[in-house]
Amino acid sequence: MDNNKKLSEGLLKADGINPAGATESERIAFGKMLDKQSKSKQSKPGSRLDICRIIMKSRITQLAAAAVMIAGTIIGLHWFGHGSPAYGITEALELWKNAQTVHIKGWKFLHTGDDTQLQKFPFDIWFDKRNGRFKHWRPISPVGVYKTETPRYNLTVSDGQYIMDTSGYINSDDNSVPPLVVFTKLSPFQQRLRIHTMNPFPAYFANLNQVKGFTKAGREQIKNKTVDIWEGVITSASPFSIKMKIWLSPETGEIVRIFTWRNAEKNSIGWVAISDDDTIEYDVMPPANCFNTDPPAGHKQINTKETVVERELSDGSPDAGFYSCIGFTLKDGSVIYGWHANNKPDESQAHLFADLEPGGPLPNLPAQVVGLKPWPAEEAIILVGRHLTFTRKKGKFYEWGIYVPDEKAPERNTFQTYKVISEYNFGPRPFFDGRPDSLGQDHELTINSEQEFDIWVRGAMAELSDDGKAPESITYESVLQLAEKIRNTFNK
Amino acid sequence: MEFEERLEKTVHRCQDGERAAFEELFEMYQPRLKYYVRRLDSGDANTDDTLQDIWLAVFKKIHKLKDVQSFAVWLYRIARNKVYDGFRRKDRFVRLPKEDELPVSGSIEPVFDTNHSEILHRALNTLKPHHREVLTLCFIEQMSYQSIADVVGCSIGTVRSRIFYAKQSLREEMESQNG
Known about the structure:
The complex is a heterodimer of chains A (492) and B (179). With 492 residues, chain A is of the alpha+beta class. Chain A has ten helices and 20 strands. The longest helix of chain A is centred in the first third of the chain and has 16 residues, at 24-39. Chain B has 179 residues and is an all-alpha fold.
């Protein structure tokens, strides 16, 4: 028996299914179904309209995914110059910080069922950073899958408080896409967080080393501007790499164009174009109603601005009863991470938090985040979890753990994210798990000062408290001291 | 007779309305289809009903299937749609994956020892649903990336990326289960 068949049969057996065929009861039921259909005059194949619908992917988080390249990106292309006085990404990001708006448009390259055949389709993105507004319009699926002439498009618009996301259903009978609209509502804290993490540039520069190899490939004129062309491969992505060409003004530091390729597969046909951001403009006036969140005509509304409830600052699966809220990396490499785990919402967890000590064991919840692991990282450094504090909101208890590296942690700008090391304490893990496996990029910040600590760490704790206040004992200095104390216990 | 050849003939006979052919097709696919539906809609007591709905749709629509060789993709798309229909009837929120052709990074895709299918099965159940789905199609049907893309309704690049990360997660989960 070949390995593939062996694997398939092994999996079926592990699930209590006989790979050889249907069970007797299934055969009987199937036979009855055939009998019934054969007798029914209405059972003529195709007589029934069966609307099969697939919810299409939300694009809301595409923006957020691009958001937190933060420190790693801020390093930028200083290397590019090799002594040249040319501006680099550092300056480009400074420009972004000071810009009211950024407009990016260009082309996305989509497969039409074959890697060798690409078609390009337009996209258009607007950012209004000061007000936390954005508009994101882009094609989201290949042409070939549903045999349609054009790709489906996703429109996500935020006016700062509400996010309107258009998705669609697929009617498999006629390949039509009846569209729908879903609203999300952000709390004031989440609005500030979104503004803080908003970033218009690709998130591929998570690691200082990734842009080291970029070289200047030339100089040309674009729209009456002289720009340097930098080319390079995002090295840590190898062997499935990202290659970028960046047009950067040495006069102003503006990135005016980015072309991106992906290496489709090891030993395959080589570089495949992903996108050409051929127009990048700063501080241009958005079109009227650019950030209007009124649902487009013809869209079915799943909810409305009036009915949508404010989004909880957490991400997770109801099936797992395990949610990731937000994480903060401190200057000593330790991390404050908020999460909650309650698979029985009606059952109070007060007793599990009653006798906890800062620096002591985590609460004995149904699920625990026992550690964090920088990823990708050359060395397997584990940040060990200890209890810091907890907050309570609407009957839920939120654990705020302090995660301290057992060895010297790598600099935050040298890895992409933290993998979550979790354990379930009671019985088998939920079947339909969906537990968080890493800190979401839009929900993780680096904290470098007491002021930032108060705004973001204490702000997040207040957000997840009934009284809107963070525990008084949690200060920048007290947490750093506690982390040091925990670290010393490792040394012993 | 090779499986593909047998399948093609069976599907043609089904399109001609031959009852025995439907029964044969049912025997050929029901076990793997059940595994897939369980992975997609795990813990649902109505898996049998969903499977019935799927086969009913197959019975009613198979005459429309033009490319007989794409039967498996067609079947699994029906299955997927039926499961999602069930989610909507129960107002169950389906979390959708956030990534879209993220650059796959890091090491080469892990391979799995087929002798450890029980561990693999347990680990598979702990993955995120969209990861679990693509790996299930990959493992039980040995579908190509393009076929999986056609079933799931996303690009081949997204499937490639999803499978890469799914296998990474699966390996980590298997390692953790092995202590």
